[in-house]
Amino acid sequence: MDWMLAILIFILLFLCYSVIPTVLIRRSGLNIVKNFNQKQAVVLTFDDGPNPVYTEQLLDVLKKYQVKATFFVLGSRVDQYPEIVKRMHREGHTIGIHHYRHVSSWLLSPLGLRNQLIRTEKAIYSCIQEYPDFYRPPWGHFNLATLFMAKKYRLIMWSDIFSDWRIDVCKSTLLQKLTAVTAEGSILLLHDCGKTLGAQEEAPRYMIESLETYLKESKQKGIHFISLRDQFKESEEIVAL
């Protein structure tokens, strides 16, 4: 019976450290941003990159339609593909932290989380000579220490997520789901790399195809796309006025 009690205590401690803080933070909106109060505006965000094939293709599409986006990058991939990150920065996109490796905060100690943040920040700074201001944890998972360890960053979640890590979704329903989004300051979450747990490696190829159609149609409707850096800059200027 002692081992059963130990297991129950472990499960309870795990829930209090990981799952419960995630639920409370996301439901309360405490210190996180999920959308903006801005009509006819959308914030495009991309997680898990950079990818040596698909991120370049994505940047081509964004450049074609003159759209600025935000990339939440993995520090390990920044170290692998610095030229892609430099291109992101050069073309006016915002670059934020996603962790050094794609590991859930549920599995990280407070010091482990701090290490993930610091290593990614250093990788980004080494690449573009700017410190990141924004952070989105993988899978949107928080732990009991997240708000303290990440207090120097703006925590960005999303208003809409599309399961675009699956090829079948990208082929069948992604465009429809994107088109259905209300352009009222929505933050859209997509993925430019499929080399993470549960994702399909070629999914970004089909995501980009649907995204290009969506961008073309949205531009015709007068929808404005803005990066997180520009969004917060505009908000600060309005407050200053």
UniProtKB/TrEMBL annotation:
- Name the PROSITE patterns on file: NODB
* GO process annotations (BP): carbohydrate metabolic process
Q: Which GO terms describe its molecular function?
A: hydrolase activity, acting on carbon-nitrogen (but not peptide) bonds
Record-annotated membrane-spanning stretches: none
- Which domain of life does this protein belong to? Bacteria
Q: Where is the NodB homology domain?
A: 40-226
> What is the designated name of this protein?
Polysaccharide deacetylase family protein
Give the species: Peribacillus saganii
